[in-house]
Write a structure and sequence with these properties.
This is Succinate dehydrogenase hydrophobic membrane anchor subunit. The protein is mainly α and 149 residues long. Helices cover 62% and strands 0% of the residues.
Length: 149
């Protein structure tokens, strides 16, 4: 009968084909793990408060229109609130997809290009979303003040 050697979990012995890190230093993955937990908690608070204010207060979902958003974004608190949701949600999601890419993309080149596209899209959405939040003008150019919400 042949004997098979079983390696105890977390014994530190990793098959070389699964060890992608070239250096043994740095705490980036630990910081990314911690960021996922903390940003997830903050996002739960931000999103549920956002849903409560938008869907349950006053007229509820029937009151959401262009004027509602214009009135909300006239207040810097709501601008910051929505900005925090945008940034945290995008960075949280990007970190999650980065982890999936690292887990499932076998080739270094594939992993590089997938993460390059991911980071480019993340930066583009964060920049565009931030611009929308801070440059939003409820008055259509050329309209009179009476037509502004």
């Amino acid at each position: 009968m042949a004997t098979t050697e079983f390696v105890a979990p977390r014994s530190g012995r990793i098959d070389p084909k699964y060890n992608r890190s070239k250096d043994k230093g740095g705490n980036f993955e630990m910081a990314a793990w911690l960021f996922m937990r903390l940003s997830g908690l903050v996002l739960v608070v931000l999103i549920f408060a956002h849903l409560f204010v938008n869907l349950l207060v006053d007229e509820g979902v029937h009151g959401i229109d262009f004027g509602f958003v214009a009135g909300k974004w006239a207040n810097p608190v709501w601008q910051f609130w929505d900005l925090a949701m945008l940034w945290l949600a995008m960075l949280h999601g990007t970190n999650g997809v980065r982890t999936i890419i690292n887990d499932y993309a076998d080739k270094d080149g594939t992993r590089f290009w997938l993460k390059t596209v991911l980071y480019f899209c993340t930066v583009a959405i964060i920049v565009l979303g931030t611009l929308v939040i801070f440059t939003f003008d409820p008055c259509i150019p050329g309209s009179t003040l009476e037509m502004c919400p």
